[in-house]
Amino acid sequence: MLLKELSALASPLSQGQVDKLKQFTSELSSVQLAWVSGYLAATASQGQTAGVPAAETSAAQTVTILYGSQTGNGRGVAQALAAKAQAQGYTVNLASMGEYNVRQLKQETVLLLVVSTHGEGEAPDDAIELHKFLASKRAPKLDNLHYSVLALGDSSYEFFCQTGKDFDARLSALGAKALLPIVECDVDYEDAAAQWQDSVIEAAKPHIQTTGASVTAIGSASVVGESQYTKQNPYSAEVLVSQKITGRDSDRDVRHVEIDLGESGLTYQVGDALGVWFSNNEALVDEVISGLGLDADENVTVSKESYSLKAALTDKKELTQLYPGLVKSWAELSGSAELAAICEDKEQIRQFILTHQFADVVAAYPAKVSAAQLVDMLRPLTPRLYSIASSQAEVESEVHLTVALVEDERQGHARFGGASHFLASAEEGQQVNVYVEPNNNFRLPENPETPVIMVGPGTGVAPFRAFMQQRVADGVSGNSWLFFGNPHFEQDFLYQVEWQQYLKNGDLSRLDVAFSRDQAHKVYVQHRIAEQAEALWQWLQNGAHVYICGDAERMAKDVHQALVNIAVEQGGLSADDAEAYFETLRSEKRYQKDVY
Amino acid sequence: MSEQKLAVNEYLKIDSDYLRGSIQEGLDTQVTGSFSDGDQQLIKFHGFYQQDDRDLRNERKEQKLEPLHSFMLRARVPGGICTPQQWLEVDKISSTLTTSNSIRLTTRQTFQYHGIPKRNLKTLIQGLDRAALDSIAACGDVNRNVMCNPNPVESKLHAQAYAVAKHLSDHLLPHTRAYAEIWLDEEKLLGTETVEPVYGQTYLPRKFKMAVAVPPDNDVDVYTNDLGFIAVAEDGELVGFNLVAGGGMGSTHGEVETFPRLADDFGFIKTEDVTKFAEAVMTVQRDWGNRVVRKRARLKYTIVDHGYEAFKAEVEKRAGVKFEPKRDVIIGDRGDRYGWVEGIDNKWHLTLFIESGRIKDMPGQTLQTGLREIAKIHKGDFRMTSNQNMIIAGVAAEDKAEIEGLARKHGLLGQVLSGTRGHSIACVALPTCPLAMAEAERYFPEFIDHVDALQAKHGISEQSIVVRMTGCPNGCARPFAAEIGLVGKAPGRYNLYLGASFEGTRLNKMHKENIQEAEILAELDVLFGRYATERDAGETFGNFTVRIGVVKAVNDAAKDFHA
């Protein structure tokens, strides 16, 4: 069999491993290939790995931890679990579901899953394939498997933790036995996740032999501690530039932020995200403290450390994003019937948390609360992820972000998004704690000839700036096509002069733009895509990869529908076949999304 | 003789397929708000210029945005006359399709829109078309908007003069269908070759301006035009014109081979020969004009370079008619008659002072709304003057009160207006005009405040002085024909020109170069002081400055202006 025909289903390798093997071997001469094949055969016969951690250490001794993660939370929980299991002497197999070879399922004895749910009950991109496989006829009997599922979700959505529930139900239906009941976590998942990690390791003990501990990461999923800077141990970088890139008459404030990674040695690939820790705005912290009549200097304990209340609210606690649990607690504390009624209705609470911050709740529904109660009630501050807008091939030790300042005015108070306001108001030289969040589900094609279609309205254009920088640096010759949209041409054409330059130089083949508010009827990227149906279908026939970045709620769905329509109209496919067509593209990594 | 390389614009015209260029492609691309460099020259023939907000250039560069491009479109309104219905359309377009939300009356009796995004151009031109207006040849190397004294008092003579102006405008329009095809979606006529009977494939070497004056008024500043017709009447009936040719304002700072010039008198022609002479002058300019050095391409240089007599002989030859000796006419005031004037037809005419021609709603002065309200009830017409003012013409006596009420309510009437302010004009300049080196429209009202104060200080407020300011030496506000001319050099800095006649029959001359407000005012303070005490009876300020030797008289611009 030729290597280029190799696929994960026909080999013991995962898709990620197959890709790596293909990439590696493509660089070798025939003499080198022959030498490598002999070397690997010899190593295999000695029962050792050739420096590459093998996926298949004896399954009976191994805990396999799989995560399906869109924003990195699931991955973080899985990594922490892997570290704890390893500390207990387990051999651990850690992988993204997208990198996992489903043929290995039969050999597993303990399988621990961490998976999130998005939008209306949708699985994260890297979980889709496994999710489908388990429901398909090809799924094997799993009588010998013990498993546990930690589901991440947002209880303000109707299909809360649906993907996790699906995995739980399907594994159970295939005969696998649950070590613990499924744990469904809300946005304040940290405590519940930590508890699950401890319990599940205990519960797995009877089913596993502990030996010398090792963690094996399958595929390209990051090994724990790959970089010394992680989410928990971020790098204190310096903000170089925070430049508004919308015009003065724009009704939105979008910033181009340049951050210096200095000597950190942090590296990223185009498609990755940057995790950004931030401090809450001082005025907001003061407003909350004074609104509750508390003392800013009072000592409180957060994660066993002592802080002043003000310091805790500034750097340790989430103030700008509400979540249902907090609103419910506040409804009880304040005794507000109005708030309690809101909590009863999923749609209402969802709207409420989208349009309120904690400070608004405090002001509108007075309650008596102690400083200690307050910090216990608030969830820990979590970093925000931004799709990286630069390539290191171009900007070296810098990392660029495209940040939309979230701002709103409520009852006379300006309300800001925590991280976006922090970055937008950053002075040159300000420190910001960052880490790289890899995204292997958003990668340029390996073949430089492969055409790419990029759909990135609004700040969704960020990773495509990174793509273009990378492609220019690599000197790739394949065609590229960008669809961009925003409200107004004059005010909101993010990075306009850069795209013009790429077009002029021939680095970008096509650029179609949709400015929704510049004419009587609203025009969005999906309309431009529909207008270009014939050309777009031709590009797909030529093997184009399609990338979508930006709003998940509406844009990504509308764009997907526009693409499906094209497959129907231009390709003569039925609606189902058109869906299947894009499903195939997705599994071939030709249809990738970075949506939020 | 070896083939000389022509000016760049000449090749653009040749290659443009009669002004089509790649304008359509430029309209189709949504990635930029601009047209290509070549098309930026061609769109002028379609009536508009590409501009950008210069106040925002640096800011937008930092924002990674291209300059804030927009377009300035100038309509073609021969003689400046439009109906109230047309005005309502013109007004509506400004509110819906431009970002400046204003209408700018120009020094050539038309209006222009500023701040038109590229995507709105077509809709806007189609809107004008529905109102029976267009912008064909309002700019570019063609015969521009033909001016005509809007004097509604001698309405019979005016009507006859206006008919000549309208005829000239229509007759000398380019014949290319580029405008109709690109903007009005008219089909390409297959199998028909474009023919430009007067212009030819390369049109004129440079812009060409025409005016018809009705003495004693010289509001159209007839001598500043390439071709001027000064009406000659007998017993109140038009019999013909004194033809003048070779005027023009544009020059370049520091380049003595360029200079403003007033037109030469050529003699009297009969009304029936007007078209022949107009075509003759234009075709001589077409064939003799300098197509190598664009700066020297206007008719004024053609006459200087070929000589007055040779030019005159060629024009007579082509017209097939000889000039008669020029008739005596009195050239008088260049200002407008503000307020109500009764015409010979018993209709009333109200001239409204519009500062810098900018019709816009501002706090306390809702000029645009006011004119809209007037247009809704007005039964006569609107007349735009060459001093950037508006005449509500042909009002029946019984309608006067209502019109006046509206004008007062919206701040169009009732302001205290000095004679000098009433005679003074400024061009647009910053932030939109790409040529401007200094402010004009935005700063001019304040500057006139200072002039008014100085005149008051010296007790000479009753004397009107023609003051004109432009942001560059191209001369849109005809600054070289002003008694006090200020021409921008750099932000806050102007050249000060003095010594033109009040009537517009003699140019001014540079007195001080590159000076700032304080120095300008100090100069005027001294000169006004002397004028107050040393002037002869009835002596105008421009004549005074020449007589006392502050500047030398400019009689022959080619020799005297830079001397």
From TrEMBL, chain A:
Enzyme Commission number: 1.8.1.2
Cofactor comment: Binds 1 FMN per subunit.
Pathway listed: Sulfur metabolism; hydrogen sulfide biosynthesis; hydrogen sulfide from sulfite (NADPH route): step 1/1
Enzyme class label: oxidoreductase
Limits of the FAD-binding FR-type domain: 232-445
InterPro entries: CysJ, CysJ-like_FAD-binding, FAD-bd_FR_type, Flavdoxin-like, Flavodoxin/NO_synth, Flavoprot_Pyr_Nucl_cyt_Rdtase, Flavoprotein-like_sf, FNR_nucleotide-bd
Domain Flavodoxin-like: 63-201
Necessary cofactors: FMN; FAD
Alphabetized UniProt keyword annotations: Amino-acid biosynthesis, Cysteine biosynthesis, Electron transport, FAD, Flavoprotein, FMN, NADP, Oxidoreductase, Transport
Pfam families membership: FAD_binding_1, Flavodoxin_1, NAD_binding_1
Catalyzed chemical reaction(s): hydrogen sulfide + 3 NADP(+) + 3 H2O = sulfite + 3 NADPH + 4 H(+)
The organism's place on the tree of life at top rank: Bacteria
Role of this protein: Component of the sulfite reductase complex that catalyzes the 6-electron reduction of sulfite to sulfide. This is one of several activities required for the biosynthesis of L-cysteine from sulfate. The flavoprotein component catalyzes the electron flow from NADPH -> FAD -> FMN to the hemoprotein component.
NCBIfam families in the cross-refs: cysJ
Subunit structure: Alpha(8)-beta(8). The alpha component is a flavoprotein, the beta component is a hemoprotein.
Protein name per the record: Sulfite reductase [NADPH] flavoprotein alpha-component
Annotated source species: Shewanella inventionis
Taxonomic placement: Bacteria, Pseudomonadati, Pseudomonadota, Gammaproteobacteria, Alteromonadales
Gene: cysJ
UniProtKB/TrEMBL annotation, chain B:
Cofactor(s) required for function per UniProt: siroheme; [4Fe-4S] cluster
UniProt xrefs under SUPFAM superfamilies: Nitrite and sulphite reductase 4Fe-4S domain-like (SSF56014), Nitrite/Sulfite reductase N-terminal domain-like (SSF55124)
Annotated Nitrite/sulphite reductase 4Fe-4S domain residues: 165-322
Residues that hold siroheme according to the record: C476
Superkingdom of origin: Bacteria
Keywords carried by this UniProt record: 4Fe-4S, Amino-acid biosynthesis, Cysteine biosynthesis, Heme, Iron, Iron-sulfur, Metal-binding, NADP, Oxidoreductase
Homology family: Belongs to the nitrite and sulfite reductase 4Fe-4S domain family.
PANTHER family (UniProt xref): SULFITE REDUCTASE [NADPH] SUBUNIT BETA (PTHR11493:SF47), SULFITE REDUCTASE [NADPH] SUBUNIT BETA-RELATED (PTHR11493)
Protein name: Sulfite reductase [NADPH] hemoprotein beta-component
UniProt source species: Shewanella inventionis
Lineage: Bacteria, Pseudomonadati, Pseudomonadota, Gammaproteobacteria, Alteromonadales
